[in-house]
Design a protein that fits this description.
Helix content: 40-55%
Number of helices: 29
Number of strands: 29
Strand order of the largest sheet: 6-5-9-8-7
Radius of gyration: 52 Å
Distance between the termini: 113 Å
Shape: flat
Strand content: 15-25%
Structural class: alpha+beta
Largest sheet: 5 strands, antiparallel
Length: 972
């Protein structure tokens, strides 16, 4: 007898659980109700006692009658509900106190007032232990009641089940035994309770079904024997059919292949070898062997379709070309089916290859014949598409590719409605074309692959072949996205938009005209100021530099020239700072993006600032992370100026402690260079921090105020123009930290342009074998004429001078120079107009024309170059810039003073500075530390009169900004 769960036990347990649940729920509800009543009673008692105590104690506490207070307290605590009572006067002194032992009490404090004044406090506790005992008794009674109900119910259920369920169960057991023995006719089920009738009827139905199934199985066995014989006949017919299929494949040039993906075994039939033009022995029998025969232009597409089939995206059915061993190219159409294991992994592909070369050649002829029509279709800016009667795309133009974000290959063969936001509406319009023959201005919305939507109006019609049969639908779309947006705007604002637009338009026109006039006036002013200031400075700095080279000068004359040069350099620095700020504000500054060695740049700055820090007894440290990017692309001059300004300010405003330059990298979407300069200086007052980056604003004591006050303002503008950001933290008297974050691009060391090193050797003249070129100087300023003339004469070039552009055109008509120095601003005819006229004259296309201008805006170089000029030199210029430009444009070669020895790298050897007097060494040291070019040139001029060779070495180092090498030798 099989063991199992007892029906009697299960139903008994279920009823017991039900009774227990109901009893527990009833007890819990009663208990919770009583608890709530007790809580309410607590609140009521507490409120009542609070009112009684306040009334009873007001006058005794006011009159400071401690005896009466004690009596009142004793009266209240005599009540068994009072668990505790504490009474204090207005100074917190305890007048009465009594505590009773209580398991649970609720405490409350109140303030006793008299005529609005606090005269004492009371804290008392109320205990209702009697009510809680009543709750516990109620809970106990409920539990006893539940236990009694369970016991009574258990006995009743056992009696009912044993008396009423035994008869139907015994009948079912007897019927089951008869069914097991196969005595279906002997099964008899007695009449019992109505509730058991469905069970007995179902059992009878089951026994009848089993009997019927046995008869059916006997008949099935007889049919199976007959089917086995028939299957053998079918297999024989299938074998004969396969033989005929192989013959048909060979006749139709159809190859069959079978690829075991797991083992990479590729089996071909004879037609495949014939199709690919190889023998069975030449074929490797693997995927790679087949791949090698694919045409190089089709390999990626064919293999991509294989990968798509293996992923399950689609079945493998592409068209591709193969290259036979004899060099011939054949076009193949493939078709296959992919088989997978239970886990979905591809294990086998079976397919066919059909030679479609002839069909492709026919299609190519048809395409060639319709190239004119195709060109017309592609010329349309509107999306055009042809659709088959089945709704598949057969052709598209480039505008359709652009609107959907998909290529022609991806679109052809797909359902046209898949690329609209409302596919059902698109199909409805397509059916209307077949009903009416056309549709006009049918509204739809094309969905781009990236999600954007283009609203269009479609015009479509059917097209037919020569016999009149319908080939499909030709549809053209017109983009109405902007029109719909405009219509929506007009619809929303139609009541008042016209008046508002007119008013705003008038305001905008006035504002625009005013802004344009102000911008033009500002640009004219800056250009004029740049020209008016730089032009005389060009003469001052140029002639002072020429005169300092005169060995016959006395010491006082040389000092006077040094003063002139220093003043000119200082004035030029001020002008450059002011004009730089103006260009930044006007948005007309250009940032360079060239390869640079950041390591050398930082080292140069630190070396230059180290001496100044040591003078003040400061530590100048550099903290550099291991990921520091040494070779980057950026604006070297402005990045150098940013670091110099920050480190220079830190040293300037720090009297003790030190300055630390930290360099690091932060990588997110793009690498960022982190520059942090921390000092232990005087810090910045909180009220001054708001104006820190404003121009012409300086802080600190007047004794340390030097410069224009533009340093930090220009630094901030440079950082933002380079795409970065700058911030700071400062506490007055504790120091400051400035942080800069700049996006940078890492480059290879080989990209660093070695040609940036300037040639600083002293030019003695043209090389002996160099041609003698002719030069025309076009300049209206006498001083600049003379300066350029002397520079050309110095190296032996034939030179003429023109006062303005008109005179330059007339001279060029008679005398064709090799190069023209062309001033930008001149009376009668300016340099741009003169350049254009010269370029139109015979021989004007060969002459080199170089602009010499004092313009403040470097972007005006594009205007000059577009006018036909070949190069650009800004005033005030250095002599080597003029000579370098000649070398670039005419290819001249120079000889230098000192011969071949001068061509070597300038090297300052140990002890070379010992020939200089001590006061000159001190002057040279101070000039280098000040970074003022005028002072440096003055000191070098004095060196030249003592030791010309040493002067050339020092000049070479200064031109390359290698100040640390000189300072190190002076300090040594």
């Amino acid at each position: 007898m099989n063991s199992g769960n007892s029906f009697y036990r299960e139903i008994t347990l279920a009823l017991i659980a039900l009774v227990c649940f109901v009893s527990v729920a009833e007890v819990a509800v009663n208990y919770l109700y009583q608890k709530r009543e007790v809580a309410a009673l607590y609140r009521q008692k507490t409120a009542e006692y609070s009112a009684y105590l306040a009334d009873a104690l007001e006058w005794p506490l006011w009159n400071v009658d401690e005896d009466l207070v004690a009596k009142i307290g004793s009266t209240f605590t005599s009540n068994e509900e009072f668990a505790s009572l504490v009474i204090r006067d207005d100074r917190g002194k305890i007048i009465y106190r009594r505590e009773k032992p209580a398991a649970r009490q609720t405490r409350k404090g109140l303030v006793i007032r008299h005529e609005g004044h606090e005269i004492g406090t009371v804290e008392f506790g109320v205990s209702l232990s009697g009510y809680e005992a009543k709750d516990r008794q109620l809970l106990l009674n409920g539990m006893l009641t539940m236990i009694l109900l369970v016991a009574v119910l258990l006995g009743a259920m056992r009696w009912i089940l044993s008396r009423l369920l035994r008869k139907p169960v015994d009948s079912l057991v007897a019927a089951t035994g008869a069914m097991v023995e196969g005595k279906y006719g002997a099964i008899a089920l007695p009449e019992i309770y109505l509730e058991f009738a469905p069970i007995l009827a179902g059992f009878k139905t089951m026994s009848d079904a089993v009997e019927s199934r046995e008869l059916s199985l006997k008949r099935s066995n007889e049919r199976l024997a007959s089917e086995i014989a028939e299957r053998r006949q079918v297999e024989e017919a299938l074998r004969r059919s396969e033989e005929r299929l192989q013959l048909a494949a060979a006749a139709g040039n159809i190859g069959v292949w079978d690829w075991d993906i797991v083992k990479d075994i590729l089996l071909w039939d004879d037609s495949m070898y014939s199709l690919y033009g190889i023998s069975r022995e030449e074929f490797g029998g693997a995927y790679e062997a087949w791949s090698k025969m694919l045409h190089s232009e089709d390999r990626e597409h064919a293999e991509g379709e294989i990968r798509a089939a293996l992923r399950g995206d689609r079945e493998y059915a592409p068209e591709f070309r193969i290259v036979r061993p004899d060099g011939s190219v054949r076009s193949i159409k493939a078709a296959s089916r992919t088989y997978r294991d239970e886990s979905g992994r591809p294990v086998r592909m079976v397919g066919t290859n059909i030679d479609i070369t002839a069909r492709k050649e026919t299609e190519e002829k048809l395409r060639s014949a319709s190239s004119y029509t195709r060109s017309l279709i592609e010329a349309s800016l509107d999306p055009l598409v042809t659709i088959s009667p089945e709704g598949k795309i057969t052709d598209v133009n480039r505008a359709t590719e652009s609107a959907t974000g998909r290529s022609r290959r991806d679109l052809v063969g797909t359902d046209f409605s898949d690329y609209f936001t409302e596919p059902e509406k698109a199909r409805e319009g397509y059916l209307q074309v077949f009903e009416k023959g056309y549709v006009t201005d049918y509204p739809l919305a094309i969905r781009h692959r990236e999600g954007r939507v283009t609203d269009v109006l479609y015009n479509a019609s059917i097209f037919r072949d020569d016999s009149g049969a319908v080939l499909g639908v030709f549809a053209a779309a017109r983009d109405i996205t902007e029109r719909k947006r405009a219509e929506e705007e007009l619809r929303r604002y139609k009541d008042h938009l016209e008046e508002e637009v007119q008013q705003r338009t008038a305001d905008l026109v006035l504002a625009r005209n005013a802004a344009e006039a102000a911008n033009r006036a500002k640009s004219v002013f800056l250009a004029s100021m740049s020209h008016e200031l730089r032009t005389p400075l060009n003469s001052i700095l140029g002639f002072s530099s020429l005169m300092r080279k005169d060995a016959a000068l006395s010491g006082s004359q040389r000092e006077t020239l040094d003063i002139i040069a220093r003043s000119g350099e200082h004035l030029l620095t001020l002008i450059n700072d002011v004009l730089e700020m103006a260009k930044i504000e006007a948005g007309r500054i250009e940032m360079e993006n060239e390869p640079l060695d950041l390591g050398n740049l930082v080292r140069d700055v630190i070396d230059m600032m180290q001496v100044r820090a040591r003078e003040k007894g400061l530590r100048l440290l550099i903290d550099q992370s291991s990921e520091f990017p040494r070779f980057i692309r950026g604006d070297e001059a402005r990045l150098r100026q940013v670091i110099i300004n920050l480190v220079g300010n830190a040293v300037k405003f720090t009297d003790q402690g030190g300055v630390t330059l930290r360099l690091g990298v932060k990588s997110n979407a793009q690498m960022h260079l982190l520059v942090e300069v921390e000092d232990s200086g005087i810090g910045i007052r909180e009220e001054d921090q708001k104006m820190l980056f404003q121009p012409f604003v300086q802080f600190g004591e007047s004794a340390i105020q030097k410069g224009t006050g533009l340093g930090l303002s220009i630094t901030k503008q440079y950082v933002e123009l380079m795409g970065g950001k700058i911030g700071f933290e400062s506490a007055f008297g504790k120091g400051s930290v400035f942080r800069v974050e700049l996006p940078v691009e890492n480059i290879l060391e080989s990209e660093i342009d070695s040609r940036r090193r300037e040639e600083t050797r002293e030019i003695a003249g043209l090389a002996p074998d160099s041609p003698r070129f002719s030069i025309l100087i076009v300049e209206d300023q006498k001083e600049n004429q003379l300066l350029l003339f002397q520079l050309m004469k110095r190296i032996g070039l034939d030179t003429l001078i023109a006062e303005n552009g008109k005179e330059a055109v007339e001279i060029f008509d008679k005398w064709h120079p090799d190069l023209i120095w062309m001033d930008r601003r001149m009376p009668v005819m300016d340099g741009i107009e003169a350049t254009r006229k010269i370029r139109e004259m015979p021989g004007g296309g060969k002459v080199k024309i170089v602009a010499v201008t004092a313009s403040a805006f470097r972007e005006q170089r594009e205007e000059l170059l577009s006018a036909g000029m070949d190069d650009f030199v800004r005033k005030p210029y250095r002599f080597n810039e003029i000579y370098d430009c000649l070398k670039r444009q005419l290819g001249v070669e120079y000889v230098y003073e000192g011969g071949e020895a001068e061509e070597r790298e300038a090297t300052l050897e140990k002890g070379m500075l010992s020939v200089l007097p001590d006061d000159l060494r001190v002057e040279l040291k101070g000039a280098l530390e000040s970074l003022e070019s005028g002072r440096i040139e003055s000191a070098l001029g004095k060196v030249s009169s003592i030791d010309p060779q040493l002067f050339r070495v020092l000049a070479r180092l200064v031109e390359n900004y290698n100040y640390p090498a000189i300072l190190q030798e002076i300090g040594g």
